[in-house]
Amino acid sequence: MTALTMSLTVFAAVLCAGGAVRLAVGQERGLRRARRLLTAPGASVAAMPGAPPWERWLPEARERARRLHGKWLCLPPAVLLALLGESVLPLFGGVLAVPLVGRWLRARERRKARERLADRIVALCGTAAGELRAGMQPTQALLAAAGSTGGLGSAEGAVLAAARFGGDVPDALRKAAREPGADGLVGLAACWRVAVDGGAGLAAGLDRLDAALRAEREQREGLRAQLAGAWATVVVLALLPVVGLALGWALGADPLRVLLHTPAGLGCLAVGGLLEGAGLWWAARIVRTGEAP
């Protein structure tokens, strides 16, 4: 009876804590929504006088938590295999897989960030060309396009400062192009230099640059679509050991006990793991080589 009472008490405490957290999150969302409604377009919510200090780092912390959550998802299957096979070897494998999965997730996030920046640069060129045709000066067009698209990456402040105060805009653009995914800014710097030195039309150059960047993006997307079958082959190769274990159970055998508790099984597990890892690495390398520009 005492154990039941303690369990009910703990359950009630957890429910109360969850309700309090939900109310706090809902209230915070309501405050953020109200600030967005009352803020002028283009203004930063975090810059408002009534905004709490955690408005700046909350999205970044949420993104880091999501990455950690994905990285640690390889531990529950390892724990399940350890319980089914009555061995600690799957736990060691799960722990070793955590940094590998984290590295893969970070590489995927970097690739997505490069692609998002490349897309913003394409939008920047098109928007700047439209602003120039509307009658704006090159500096004003660059400032307006950067403000609406954010296509200058992490070096946006340096480029905009050079544009506002008469600095060397092409040099600032070339420095900003060193960021991964910002290669299109090299073309923008060349167009700017030609327009300033030779008097050529900047809008026409930006149109050609925009068309070239769009064609490159479409080519990259088409190549990725063609390589989807190859990536599917890599996934199938990674799932073959799981299929083998399932077939063993279906035939009435106990593959985990054989693999984890017999010398022959341990040898087969070590050799098979090495061959599986080498095969996955080689297949992924071939596909990535095909994806390279």
From TrEMBL:
Residue ranges crossing the lipid bilayer per the database entry: 227-252, 264-284
Keyword hit for rRNA processing: no
A Pfam entry, by short name: T2SSF
Keyword Cell membrane (UniProt): yes
Keywords: Cell membrane, Membrane, Transmembrane, Transmembrane helix
Residues covered by the Type II secretion system protein GspF domain: 128-246
Annotated membrane topology: Multi-pass membrane protein
Protein localization: Cell membrane
Gene Ontology CC entries for this record: plasma membrane
PANTHER family cross-referenced by the UniProt entry: CONSERVED TRANSMEMBRANE PROTEIN-RELATED (PTHR35007:SF4), INTEGRAL MEMBRANE PROTEIN-RELATED (PTHR35007)
Name used for this protein in its record: Type II secretion system F protein
UniProt source species: Streptomyces scopuliridis RB72
